[in-house]
Amino acid sequence: MTDITRIARQFIEALPHAAALGLRLDQIGDGRAVLSMPWDERLIGDPATGVIAGGAVSALMDTASGASVMCHPAGPATTATLDLRIDYMRPATPGQTIRARAHCHHVTRSVAFVSVTATDDDESRPVAMGAGAFTVDIRR
Amino acid sequence: MTAARETMLRQLVEGIPYLRFLGLRFDIAGEELTAVLPFQPMLIGNPLIPALHGGVTAAFLEVTAITGLVWSGLAEGQAPGARPDHGLPKTIDLTVDYLRPGQPKDAFARARITRSGRRYASVHVEAWQDSPDRLFAQGTGHFLMPEA
Asked: Contacts of residue B63 in chain A, CB cutoff 8 Å?
């Protein structure tokens, strides 16, 4: 593991809400970030099915998106979400880790644009996909 | 009837682990349902700012929308989500507009159901902290209603 990955992992996993969700940084660099959220029964949104709440998946995807902005070569040292749209394709399978892959594909002086996909063990069928716009702090 | 409706909603909310995880509660005044997210340190994203995590804000809007649909359904006697065999409304999509950072203090949200059909519902949600005139986030989502 590179120093940058190690530092980024310590930073992200220490964010209070990321820690509460049990988020793990799997990969980071060059405008891409992969974060995973292990199965946790505290995060169930529908007790009848045991499916994880959409909100927890949104938080995972938002965190991965922010991380992808911060590791973009032209990205800012810190960022905040301006807008995030998430489409939920199917329920995540209960008991499985959910993984979000975010790609910061464009950065201007003011805005960073991100696309993000969440999957469970069946990576061929995404659970959710999102598109976001993030702030770029020009006082870097 | 109102008391029975309130009891059904509270039982439903208490049965959802994720709402307990967030520490969310609902205040009811007549017809009006307000979601309350009491501040706690684990809701913070970046501690350097410090602000509510953007994902917390998205989650807050989403669960407010879903609970608003259930509350509205209970009023109409359809009770979607109030019966376990019917299930809860499912999120199709949600767009969150982050207007300003969420402060480390209690947050409130209300849902307005802009369209509610048999299969699909469209909901607008607004969230604030100090005053409802000063929103920190708003969202629009589409939801798939449980089969009656």
From this structure: 45, 53, 55
pLDDT digits (tens, 9 = 90+) for B10-38: 998 899 999 999 999 999 998 899 999 99
Quick check: B93 and A87 CB within 8 A?
yes
Residue B81 · residue B12 · CB < 8 Å: yes
Interface ipTM above 0.95: no
Task: From chain B, pick out residues whose CB is under 8 angstroms from the CB of A45.
Answer: 16-18, 63, 88
Domains for chain B: give ranges and CATH numbers: 2-144 (3.10.129.10)
Task: State phi, psi for A43 to the nearest 5 degrees.
Answer: -100, 10
Quick one: A3-135 is in which CATH superfamily? Answer: Hotdog Thioesterase (3.10.129.10)
Nearest-CB residue to A56 (from B48, B59, B101): B59
Is the pTM higher than 0.90? The answer reads yes
Q: Could you tell me if A49 lies within 8 Å of chain B, comparing CB atoms? A: yes
